[in-house]
Amino acid sequence: MAVDPQEMEESERMIPADSAFSLNETLKTIERRHSIRTFTEQEVPDDLINILLQAANKAPSAHNQQPWRFIVIRNKKKQELAHLVTSAAPNFPKPASALLRMAARSIVSAPVVIAVANTGELIEHGTQLFKIEKEMAKDFFRTMEIQSSAASVENMLLAATSLGLATVWLGILFLMKDEVLRFLGEPKGEFMAVVPVGYAVRPSSGPQKQPFEARVKYLA
User: Fold this and answer.
1) From CA 66, how far away is CA 155, in angstroms rounded?
2) Per the confidence metrics, is the pTM higher than 0.70?
3) How far apart are CA 163 and CA 51, in angstroms?
4) pLDDT tens digits, residue range 120-168?
5) Biggest alpha carbon–alpha carbon distance for the chain
6) Is 51 left (phi over 0), alpha (psi -120 to 50) or beta?
């Protein structure tokens, strides 16, 4: 008996959230992933870091340009990065400065930090491909670079969760993006992410999410 596609779609929408994430290991990993800001002193083996980098590099990217670079930071350079962030914190209003100091503590706590920067290669090559006004093309491909690099970070976070590792995406550091990129030896760009990686001090669960129904609308 043929199944009506519309009826199938309606039934799929009705899968309870607590059941949906038990369907396979990928969905279980998505559900488990949450930010961890304090880590043990246990080192993360190089082979696991390489798996995270390979997973990040598998992310989708516009025109398959892979416009990202991954920078692995340990030891002295990690401490220097934390100092850079702590030193810059007083230059921002109190809410932001407090978050920057918290980010610096996470950098110190983690045994390894992975930074992600976009290279500008997509912007450079894309504007040559599209015969449109230069500034319009630049903005178009700038956005594509941001989307591509953000996808690579999410791949990294999910891979880390699947391997029993803890991570946090320190979005607040975007306030001092140019300073961090300079520290990393990377050119000024439109995207920069800093992700401490390690083992959680203690088991925890993430914040309660709003029901997906509150964030979805259907058009037909």
Assistant:
1) 13
2) yes
3) 9
4) 887 777 767 766 777 777 788 888 899 999 999 999 999 999 999 999 9
5) 68
6) alpha
Instruction: Report domain extents, the chain.
Output: 37-196
Give yes or no for a contact between 102 and 50, defined as CB atoms under 8 angstroms apart: no
Fold for 37-196, please state it: NADH Oxidase (3.40.109)
* Three-class DSSP labels, the chain: CCCCHHHHHHHHHCCCHHHHCCCCHHHHHHHHCCECCCECCCCCCHHHHHHHHHHHHCCCCHHHCCCEEEEEECHHHHHHHHHHHHHHHHHCCHHHHHHHHHHHHHHHHCCEEEEEEECCHHHHHHHHHCCCCHHHHHHHHHHHHHHHHHHHHHHHHHHHHHCCCEECCCHHHHHHHHHHHHHHCCCCCCCEEEEEEECECCCCCCCCCCCHHHHCCCCC
> Which one-letter amino acid corresponds to residue 38?
T
- Could you tell me the two tokens for 122? 């997509």
Mean pLDDT of the chain: 90
How much is the pLDDT for 15?
66
Residues belonging to the chain: 220
Amino acid of residue 176: M
Who contacts 152 (Cβ-Cβ below 8 Å, separation ≥6)?
56, 57, 59, 61, 68, 116
Asked if residues 89 and 101 have their Cβ atoms less than 8 Å apart, the reply is yes
